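Progress against Task 2.4 (sequence-to-structure conversion) is shown through the following example record, which the project officer requested during the mid-term review.
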Amino acid sequence: MNIKKLNPDAGPYAAYGARLRKVRQELGLRQKDVAKRVGYAESHMSGVEIAAKKPTLNFSVALDTALGLTNTERAFEREWRNITFGALLEGFPEYLKLEARAVEVRAFETGIVPGLLQTPEYARALAEAAVQRGAITAELAEQRLRALAERQQAVQGERPPMIFAVLDESCIRRTIGGSGVMKAQLCHLVDFATFPNTVLQIIPFSVGERRPLDLLTNLLTLPDRSIVSYAESQTQGHLDREITSVASLMTAYHQAQAVSLSQAETVALIEYAEREHP
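Structure tokens generated for the chain above:
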């Protein structure tokens, strides 16, 4: 049998594959043994080991379960997140893991539509702009787009969380990706507002200095009813479980909802903005 020699220094996916082979061999398992346990084809397992196929979050989680590595320092899920989110702000990878378990998600954003509500074309326009600025590489942009798609899928299961989204009016006024992309994004927001597990509100420009929130803010209610927050500036991200500061952010979020348009008024404003994009 010809066994391809692996070079873990060739890149992060090569390192992932090489470690997978090493762990598998240490456990005395063949590729087909592990493939059967994780529910993937043996050819897929082989492809990941030689870095011909890129691992996904679901694959990594299944791999950890099969190999007894869940929630350990050696977890492949941890390695996947490090590869995918290595260039993101501190705290965000952990936030995403909690978001997938949340029963309620509250998001506030200014300037751009929040990730959970973005269309693929809108998200790609933002990623490609970051590449052009030299902020990230093209490969990392693709990784982020795949991760965003998985993130969106994670909150669209059989029992999706309740999602509250408060957007500053700038989110629907700032054209991203050209008129065609923006029009489709606005249509998507209108559709989002019709779902039984969503509430969408816009804070109009007329609120002025009375807007309670200024930075991206996310609040998660977990199954045990505990609440965590994640807030961002341009250069820093912060995940917080401390009850006092989280409660303060929750109060500000409720205040933001209070000065926002109703959902019906929000949809009407979005539809008006949509007509500006022929």
